[in-house]
Specification:
Oligomer: single chain
Order of helices and strands: EHHEEEHEEEEHEHEEEHEEEH
Structural class: alpha+beta
CATH class of the largest domain: Alpha Beta
CATH architecture of the largest domain: 3-Layer(aba) Sandwich
Length: 288
């Protein structure tokens, strides 16, 4: 290999700049603001090939701790898979992937990733297999009067309050992630306009409202909350709820296989078979 394999170089300004230039080129985003705010911690580690000081290919390792039925699970999720257009068709992604699997396969409970439709034949070559996830829906008849407050995450005092609770959050679903940096990535970025406060439960809610449908993606609280109380707080205009996670109590929900356009879950390791077996779902905010 004529290029050098490097990892965990986030504090090296020249390399981080090149990494962000490649993410901008391939995915139309950068992680610079995430880094500057102190959210890029040890759990996110890019494995990259460099041509000099230029990052030309990458697969990132996300160390993912989950609580599944009260048991700590240590997984890694692979993401930010990219190769500079000028360096493609040289097997660079395969080289990085082999290095990661060699390092981690015997150290964690499982390895997984979410793939788009253009590469569904690629990941099985490494030993990954497709897995189903399950989503939870229910029709609701909420009382009149909305009792939820949308938050402005551009206000620093509000953001600080949410992030403080995030650091001390308790488990409120059947497969809950423990990854502060990844939560902060979503809640400070793409989902910053979807943060609500439910006063009756003293909980922060990440939710996307589309007409009468409420996509309830995350509950953030330092205690176990009453899920029905949270849903009721969104008022009478909410007629259907779709959870972005697997709830503790599913008896009132319709459960069906989760289908998402251009997104397929691939897993490695017998432990991860529990996702399908127990009809679970990786929470929306856990996608890297």
């Amino acid at each position: 290999m004529k290029y050098r394999l490097i990892k965990d170089y986030k504090h090296e300004n020249k390399l981080r700049k090149s990494f962000n230039e490649l993410t901008q080129k391939v995915f139309d985003f950068t992680l610079e603001e995430w880094y500057q705010e102190g959210f890029w911690g040890e759990q996110y580690c890019p494995y990259s090939l460099a041509d000099g000081d230029k990052i030309i290919a990458n697969v990132s390792v996300n160390q993912m701790d989950f609580i599944m039925d009260g048991v700590l699970k240590k997984y890694i999720q692979l993401g930010t898979v990219m190769t500079d257009k000028e360096y493609r068709n040289q097997g660079l992604g395969r080289y990085i992937m082999d290095a990661i699997l060699q390092e981690y396969q015997e150290k964690v409970d499982g390895i997984y990733l979410f793939a788009n439709d253009s590469v569904l034949d690629y990941y099985p070559k490494f030993g990954f297999r497709k897995s189903s996830e399950y989503s939870y829906h229910k029709i609701v008849c909420n009382p009149s009067g909305e009792k939820i407050k949308k938050l402005d995450m551009n206000r620093q005092e509000v953001k600080n309050q949410v992030l403080t609770t995030l650091r001390n959050m308790k488990v409120n679903n059947n497969l809950q992630m423990d990854n502060y940096g990844l939560y902060a990535f979503w809640m400070s970025g793409a989902m910053s306009e979807q943060i609500y406060y439910c006063e009756s439960e003293n909980a922060y809610i990440v939710a996307d409202r589309k007409g009468n449908i409420l996509n309830l993606n995350q509950i953030i609280a330092d205690h176990v909350v009453d899920m029905n109380a949270v849903i009721s707080a969104f008022g009478e205009d909410t007629k259907e709820v779709i959870l972005g996670f697997a709830p503790f109590d599913s008896k009132d929900y319709q459960v069906k296989e989760h289908k998402e356009e251009d997104c397929t879950l691939f897993i490695m390791g017998e432990d991860l078979s529990g996702i399908e077996k127990h009809r679970l779902r990786f929470p929306v905010l856990s996608h890297a």
